[in-house]
């Protein structure tokens, strides 16, 4: 019996469209003949909003929820367009999906592939995963503005951290560390954000007692940025809150060869909702439609997707093909499709023919 | 008539004691015979707290307020000591001083001196200043924990941003840019922290209209970390909130040769309260008392102090001596006092003898 993998794609805006096309082609090449991939493309994004006034409705969520997983490109239009101000697309689409589908594990592996150039002079071996909490913290949208536009304006942002929310992501991080280098680093700012800090510290320390073979340590977020540029090899699994995770994963992407290579998964581990896989980079309106974008991050996100839906061999074929492709990248510039096709070809060559 | 410079020193804990001693000696050598430096040393810090139960009382604040400026070392004891948990010293001493003395400009210059090694392979010219807001944002301590220790625990952290607080630091940043490279970069996360983001964006854009010759741009905090490692030369003045500033300044310190070189000022520009100057690094209990600490960051902080109290020539003598010393640093390790003495000697040679 053929296994069906039913995917939603949300290419989004700008280079999102170009990179998702390549990622999908690679994914299809990777699964082999025993898996039938069906895809439904959804038009959501800044352009769609400007054209229709719609961002993402509850009916859209219900439709998307039918799929097994979501492959997401990037969303966002011209940053100076006043109609897109205030993060309306980011909040109304990307964050809405993460919250509605309870993507509490925002999984961001960082690996410096051999032959990829890092901006660091001596990076050492970079191979760690940032487990970023995805459904609470300062991302909840809580807060407000009073006396707006006056000299007495006050704006607040409230970070919400629950034992329920922190515990589950911390547990996931320790379980991941069990399968990797057996080390967890909690990153927070417990000496200043003492309320949330105490919750995170307590729950990490409690979970650690269930994993005697995993060592764990703690770093303030400011110190963590130092180590990411001076000694990234020290990290195995980093667990942190939504905002710190946002910051650290971009930095991690940068030191491991740029966010053109950084993949991510917005994961609901229990499978109550479809998980969503997306490159860390944005829609890059300035180079959109020019076949200049590197589809590698989207392709590696497709590998995370395959792993998540229980096709680890197909996932491994993709990461191996990417690794081989990276090793042979010279200074010649290739188009988005050329990179995608080269990787797809390698994947196809390794995939079972029957 | 001799100008008197009446300083308070708070050496604090660990290496704070060692580096403040050197910074003070250099400062005294720099001012020349026309300035009489008087100093009063205060014992505050983790050790003092453990010995006496006192951190910093209102009477201490009143006494400190009498001085013209404060030279601060570093505070903090053994991070695993439960008596110091929850940032009790950081909040009760360092942050209390910043808040009580209205240090709304947390000034953190970043300069990669020629001959200093950066962890970046190709840093380019690094010379920018981070103007970090020092009295509000997520540092206000607002928030709390309910149902602590239960599965229903909820912890909150509230970031408070006022037009009053944001406007004055933004104004300071633009005025600084006027005297430097005429560029301001606002760093925030306006697409997610939309409430505070709107206040910051509006006030930066309003202040910009008073400075037609200063260009300004905006970066999300995550993107800013990428540029700090891929293109730090693009920055001139960065203005940002208390927490983002904390994170970015450690990263900035790291790329410019390490926080052993990173100086800072907690400044009340109006002089309503004494400003306080401190190295960005911590008390480093692991190497304390061993003469292993680099006093350069504390010495450069003393230069910021001299500049602030209206002795810019003495300040320049210090930075020039540091620059010359850095240029001649080989691989030989020197003790804290050796570095301090070498810089003090250079400074003395350049200072007026009468
Ligand atoms: C686009 C934005 C809302 C998003 C985030 O802050 O999470 C992005 O930066 C990311 O890291 O996925
Ligand atoms: C010690 C700590 C409270 C402090 C801060 O977070 O401001 C430090 O990291 C700094 O940057 O001066």
Automatic annotation (TrEMBL), chains A, B:
<dbReference type="Pfam" id="PF00180">
    <property type="entry name" value="Iso_dh"/>
</dbReference>
<feature type="binding site">
    <location>
        <position position="222"/>
    </location>
    <ligand>
        <name>substrate</name>
    </ligand>
</feature>
<feature type="binding site">
    <location>
        <position position="250"/>
    </location>
    <ligand>
        <name>Mg(2+)</name>
    </ligand>
</feature>
<feature type="site" description="Important for catalysis">
    <location>
        <position position="189"/>
    </location>
</feature>
<dbReference type="GO" id="GO:0003862">
    <property type="term" value="F:3-isopropylmalate dehydrogenase activity"/>
</dbReference>
<comment type="subunit">
    <text>Homodimer.</text>
</comment>
<dbReference type="GO" id="GO:0009098">
    <property type="term" value="P:L-leucine biosynthetic process"/>
</dbReference>
<feature type="binding site">
    <location>
        <position position="108"/>
    </location>
    <ligand>
        <name>substrate</name>
    </ligand>
</feature>
<feature type="site" description="Important for catalysis">
    <location>
        <position position="139"/>
    </location>
</feature>
<keyword id="KW-0100">Branched-chain amino acid biosynthesis</keyword>
<dbReference type="GO" id="GO:0005737">
    <property type="term" value="C:cytoplasm"/>
</dbReference>
<feature type="binding site">
    <location>
        <position position="98"/>
    </location>
    <ligand>
        <name>substrate</name>
    </ligand>
</feature>
<keyword id="KW-0028">Amino-acid biosynthesis</keyword>
<feature type="binding site">
    <location>
        <position position="132"/>
    </location>
    <ligand>
        <name>substrate</name>
    </ligand>
</feature>
<dbReference type="GO" id="GO:0000287">
    <property type="term" value="F:magnesium ion binding"/>
</dbReference>
<keyword id="KW-0520">NAD</keyword>
<protein>
    <recommendedName>
        <fullName>3-isopropylmalate dehydrogenase</fullName>
        <ecNumber>1.1.1.85</ecNumber>
    </recommendedName>
</protein>
<keyword id="KW-0464">Manganese</keyword>
<feature type="binding site">
    <location>
        <position position="246"/>
    </location>
    <ligand>
        <name>Mg(2+)</name>
    </ligand>
</feature>
<keyword id="KW-0479">Metal-binding</keyword>
<feature type="binding site">
    <location>
        <position position="222"/>
    </location>
    <ligand>
        <name>Mg(2+)</name>
    </ligand>
</feature>
<comment type="function">
    <text>Catalyzes the oxidation of 3-carboxy-2-hydroxy-4-methylpentanoate (3-isopropylmalate) to 3-carboxy-4-methyl-2-oxopentanoate. The product decarboxylates to 4-methyl-2 oxopentanoate.</text>
</comment>
<comment type="pathway">
    <text>Amino-acid biosynthesis; L-leucine biosynthesis; L-leucine from 3-methyl-2-oxobutanoate: step 3/4.</text>
</comment>
<dbReference type="InterPro" id="IPR050501">
    <property type="entry name" value="ICDH/IPMDH"/>
</dbReference>
<dbReference type="InterPro" id="IPR023698">
    <property type="entry name" value="LeuB_actb"/>
</dbReference>
<keyword id="KW-0560">Oxidoreductase</keyword>
<feature type="binding site">
    <location>
        <begin position="282"/>
        <end position="294"/>
    </location>
    <ligand>
        <name>NAD(+)</name>
    </ligand>
</feature>
<keyword id="KW-0460">Magnesium</keyword>
<dbReference type="InterPro" id="IPR019818">
    <property type="entry name" value="IsoCit/isopropylmalate_DH_CS"/>
</dbReference>
<feature type="domain" description="Isopropylmalate dehydrogenase-like">
    <location>
        <begin position="6"/>
        <end position="343"/>
    </location>
</feature>
<dbReference type="InterPro" id="IPR024084">
    <property type="entry name" value="IsoPropMal-DH-like_dom"/>
</dbReference>
<dbReference type="GO" id="GO:0051287">
    <property type="term" value="F:NAD binding"/>
</dbReference>
<keyword id="KW-0963">Cytoplasm</keyword>
<comment type="similarity">
    <text>Belongs to the isocitrate and isopropylmalate dehydrogenases family. LeuB type 2 subfamily.</text>
</comment>
<keyword id="KW-0432">Leucine biosynthesis</keyword>
């Amino acid at each position: 019996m053929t296994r069906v993998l039913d995917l939603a794609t949300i290419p989004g805006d700008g280079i999102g469209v170009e990179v998702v096309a390549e990622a999908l082609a690679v994914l299809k090449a990777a699964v082999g003949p025993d898996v039938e991939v069906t895809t439904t493309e959804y038009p959501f994004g800044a352009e769609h909003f400007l054209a229709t006034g719609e961002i993402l409705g509850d009916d859209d969520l219900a439709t998307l929820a039918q799929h097994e997983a979501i492959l997401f490109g990037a969303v966002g239009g011209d940053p100076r367009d006043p109609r897109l101000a205030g993060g309306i697309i980011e909040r109304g689409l990307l964050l809405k999906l993460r919250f509605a589908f309870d993507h509490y594990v925002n999984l961001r592996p960082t690996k410096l592939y051999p032959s990829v150039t890092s901006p660091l002079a001596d990076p050492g071996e970079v191979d760690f995963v940032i487990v970023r909490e995805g459904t609470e913290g300062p991302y909840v949208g809580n807060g407000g503005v009073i006396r707006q536009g006056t000299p007495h304006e006050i704006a607040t942002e409230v970070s919400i951290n629950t034992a329920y929310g922190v515990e589950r992501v911390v547990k996931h991080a320790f379980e991941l560390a069990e399968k990797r280098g057996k080390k967890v680093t909690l990153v927070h700012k417990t000496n200043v954000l003492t309320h949330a800090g105490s919750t995170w510290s307590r729950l990490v320390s409690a979970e650690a007692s269930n994993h005697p073979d995993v060592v764990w340590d703690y770093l303030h977020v400011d110190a963590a940025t130092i180590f990411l540029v001076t000694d990234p090899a020290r990290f195995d699994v980093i667990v942190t809150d939504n905002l710190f995770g946002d910051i650290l994963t971009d930095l991690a992407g940068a030191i491991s060869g740029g966010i053109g290579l950084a993949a991510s998964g917005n994961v609901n581990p229990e499978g109550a909702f479809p998980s969503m896989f997306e490159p860390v980079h944005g829609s890059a309106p300035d180079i959109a439609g020019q076949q200049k974008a590197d589809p590698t991050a989207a392709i590696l996100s497709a590998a995370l997707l395959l792993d998540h839906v229980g096709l680890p061999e197909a996932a491994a074929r993709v990461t191996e093909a990417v690794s081989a492709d990276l090793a042979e990248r010279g200074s010649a510039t290739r188009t988005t499709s050329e990179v995608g096709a080269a990787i797809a070809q390698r994947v196809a060559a390794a995939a079972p023919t029957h």
